[in-house]
């Protein structure tokens, strides 16, 4: 809940004038719990139960399979946990296979509803932003930028998965749509969701900051997995987590306004408040800290014997595993390439010795620093802008609620992410895709 409350404080810092007061944390938390999360979660739980998701306090059910052998089937309060997981930005599933498990996500209808639950609060926060500052067009501008990037990334991911991998084509496998097959790269995917349902779900999970998956991300094509990574590499501002996506986007908006001001030779301002050196430094710290953290930890992981123990393979796929792991943890996403492990391999002659892996310690620091440092930076930015007076717009004021600024913002975010992670994307997930005529 702290991300939602932090976003509310940032909005007040941008919208209020001449005050240091950014609201009360406990009031914001109580309102968001009682008025938003719990009512929607209750309705979503009832709907998921209607779709076939279990909701019981029993631990196991006893049943007999087709061969007559007795078996125990794990159950529990799955529907309520699933709804809260999807809306709170957690991503961890009740069962180990996450939303690919039929008890968590039984049908195509439940699959679509779970996608909506992941995106609902982050997308609605743009409308909240517009209402709180009294300028609804500003909220729509941020929503438009997020939606364009989300639709574009999802389309690329779907096209890549529908095309299949170079290895499948080299082996002579048919990945086209034929009778009895929905086509595409079905490795690691559920037949009941297909390529389209899997691509949309994974794109939503990595763009929203939730991290829930209904298929194996490591089994995606290089280009498809690269889109999932790129969603997080933008700073998870394509809707992002509940609250964190909005304030992450606002950090990039401050930087975009600063760059635009330099281009036209005017003092940059946003919502009538001048953006000065202090705000630019805080926005830069909040935006660049996580990418720097990810690259440092991933470099140490692939360069050290202790870090390489967690990799299930080598080459581009092994590098992608490592980068994805620390990227997901630092961005508070939770999804992962399944081949990356946090357990130390058994020592010869001492099978029971596992100990604590490098990935456990590095991952813990990545989660802690990657979450709290940007929060501190964005709260400091809000506190710095709160006391500023709002100046009336003039002839030279850069309007930030127009299609022109939306296009500029999208381009700025794309360049920001590409310049930061281009070498990683080319060496890891895009390397297999570059060997295919898909990118030719």
Note down, in words, how this protein is organized.
By secondary structure, this protein is mainly alpha-helical. It has one domain (2-18, 52-58, 76-439). The chain is 60% helix and 3% strand. It contains 15 helices and 4 strands. The chain has helices at residues 2-15, 25-51, 78-88, 108-133, 136-163, 166-170, 194-208, 222-233, 244-264, 277-303, 305-308, 315-330, 358-385, 403-427, 430-434; strands at residues 60-64, 70-74, 269-270, 273-274. It has a two-stranded antiparallel sheet. The chain has a two-stranded antiparallel sheet with strand order 3-4. A hairpin with a 2-residue loop joins strand 3 and strand 4. Helix 1 runs parallel beside helix 13 (358-385) and helix 10 (277-303) packs across helix 12 (315-330). It is globular and about 75 Å long. The two termini are 45 Å apart. The relative contact order is 0.13.
